[in-house]
Design a protein that fits this description.
GO terms for molecular function: spermidine synthase activity. It comes from Streptomyces phaeoluteigriseus. 52% of the residues lie in helices and 14% in strands. It is an alpha/beta fold. The strands form two sheets. Strands 7-6-5-8-9-11-10-12 form an eight-stranded mixed sheet.
Length: 524
């Protein structure tokens, strides 16, 4: 006997399952009411919130990975952090709206989102670094390549993270129906605590012990395992047999991809490093402060020192750079000299080459670089074994803090052998406050030498440094050296007497109207 069809609800789509809301597509199973759980509702609710916690931690690690890698590859950490966070928050809102259409298939939708998020988020760091390594310096066709790729990853990851929230809200309500305010409070509490754990784990555990590439792959694996376990273990009753098989195969495939990639990470890093630095890479290490790479230095090959991808020592050009920085400042009393930065010993080599230097203090943030300058045969030979000279005292620490703790009138000369002023992490070392501390540390008539950045390509930064030194009460004499290097020599007394070498020449007065840089308002 064929029974008559039940009358369709008003507004329901013809052929839609009973209980489906208006507009539900025909033939799609729609779950309504409590889910059929293999555990008690209280345990099920705890498991959903635990998954929220894990997914939030993974999501924040993805964000921090992109910020860290973009800052390393493109510099200017403030800009990169602003781009990543703002684009991802925007994408999360769009993802939340888009996920509303998946709520009637919350379990299957959540599984699909976690698979995609684990694959894209886990492989994002490696993809960015691969494009950087094998396309050179982003010139020509790739002039805007890094930012475009970064924005693409931010949009994709943000969309998927945003889609998690409404789906998880639907799942937690399927476990046990509660008022909307209580459900939102529980969900957001687990989400924010997970974000806290992920945010702390990245700089203190993942980055120092695993590195950027391996940590992102590990987080992707944790992400897909958490999502798959929740759906297949707790909400398998909401899935058809075919859907369960698809979810299982997708999770296993992503895990296999991440695992195989993790096995090949070391080989990938070596290949990418050789693509960036050439085939003579001899030392490569992440110190916790920066990446240090040494190439050559053996079998007659010239040595080159790279710090965070920037050439800092080696070759005739770098010798001329140190000479142009140090020697003009040594024309005058120089019994006591302070070198800020310069943990490679190259600036100290030039200081010690001048008779009359009785005490040279070096302060560098990176103790690993100091050890390398002392123990590596090639680098020690390049710096003339300056670190082991009995006149030299070396301390690992922050240059700003060191100047603050220095008694007034301690030094005849201060050499600022510091990273480029355009790097956000270095801007406090080019501020009016910093130069005020340096002025206090100098004896009357003492001299301060500063590398102020490339003059032709970044004149604004150069003249901002010079203006800032004058604002701190110093008398300045800007000059340039062969190779687009710009320097400023300053004194606490009369205008410094510039005695320059070959290829170096003084500069006329800079543009008017420049504003000094301070800790709160860097102007580079």
């Amino acid at each position: 006997m064929i029974e008559p069809h039940a009358p369709a609800q008003s507004g329901a789509t013809p052929g839609a399952p009973p209980g489906a809301p208006p507009g539900a597509p025909p033939g799609v199973p729609y779950r309504r009411g409590p889910a059929r759980l293999p555990v008690r509702p209280g345990t099920g609710r705890f498991l959903v919130l635990a998954c929220v916690f894990v997914c939030a931690a993974c999501g924040l690690v993805y964000e921090l990975e992109l910020v860290a890698l973009a800052s390393y590859l493109m510099g200017d950490s403030v800009t990169q952090a602003s781009v990543v966070l703002s684009v991802m928050v925007f994408a999360m809102g769009i993802g939340s709206l888009a996920a509303k259409r998946l709520r009637r298939l919350a379990a299957a939708g959540f599984a699909a989102v976690e698979v995609a998020l684990a694959l894209i988020g886990g492989c994002s760091a490696m993809a960015l670094y691969a494009v950087f390594a094998w396309t050179g310096d982003w010139g020509g066709l790739w002039a805007h390549g890094p930012r475009v790729l970064l924005v693409v990853f931010c949009l994709a990851i943000g969309l998927l993270i945003g889609a998690e929230v409404p789906l998880l809200m639907e799942l937690i309500q399927r476990v046990r129906r509660q008022d909307a305010g209580g459900a939102v409070a529980d969900l957001f509490a687990a989400d924010y605590v997970g974000a806290l754990v992920g945010g702390l784990a990245f700089p203190f555990l993942l980055l120092p012990f695993l590195g950027q590439l391996t940590s992102s792959l590990l987080i992707g694996a944790v992400n897909v395992i958490a999502g798959g376990a929740l759906v297949l273990g707790l909400f398998r009753g909401d899935l058809t047999r075919r859907t369960r098989c698809l979810v299982l195969v997708a999770n296993a495939t992503v895990l296999a991809v991440l695992a195989c990639t993790a096995v090949l990470v070391d080989d990938f890093e070596r290949a990418a490093r050789h693509a960036v630095y050439g085939d003579d890479v001899r030392v490569a290490l992440h110190t916790g402060v920066q990446e240090v790479v040494l190439t050559g230095g053996t079998h007659g090959r010239p040595l080159a020192l790279y710090l965070d991808g920037r050439l800092r020592g080696g070759g005739h050009d770098q010798l001329r750079y140190r000479q142009a920085l140090v020697r003009p400042a040594m024309n005058g009393p120089h019994a006591r000299v302070l070198v800020l930065g310069g943990g490679d010993g190259l600036a100290a080599r030039e200081v010690l080459a001048r008779p009359g230097a009785h005490r040279v203090d070096i302060v560098d943030l990176d103790p690993a670089l100091i050890r390398l300058a002392r123990t590596d045969p090639g680098l020690a030979r390049l710096n003339g074994h300056a670190i082991d000279d009995p006149r030299v005292r070396v301390a690992a620490g922050d240059s700003f803090r060191s100047l603050r703790e220095t008694p007034p009138g301690t030094y005849d000369v201060v050499i600022a052998d510091l990273p480029d002023p355009g790097i956000t992490a270095s801007t406090k070392l080019y501020s009016q406050e910093f130069y005020g501390l340096a002025r206090r540390a100098l004896r009357p008539g003492g001299r301060l030498a500063v590398h102020a950045g490339p003059l032709d390509t970044r004149p604004h930064a150069f003249w901002t440094v010079e203006t800032t030194m004058r604002a701190a009460g110093l008398r300045t004499a800007p000059y340039r050296a062969r190779g687009d290097w710009g320097f400023v020599l300053a004194t606490t007394g009369a205008r410094p007497d510039l005695r320059l070498g070959p290829g170096e020449r003084p500069l006329p007065a800079g543009p008017t109207g420049m504003r000094a840089s301070t800790l709160l308002h860097p102007r580079y």
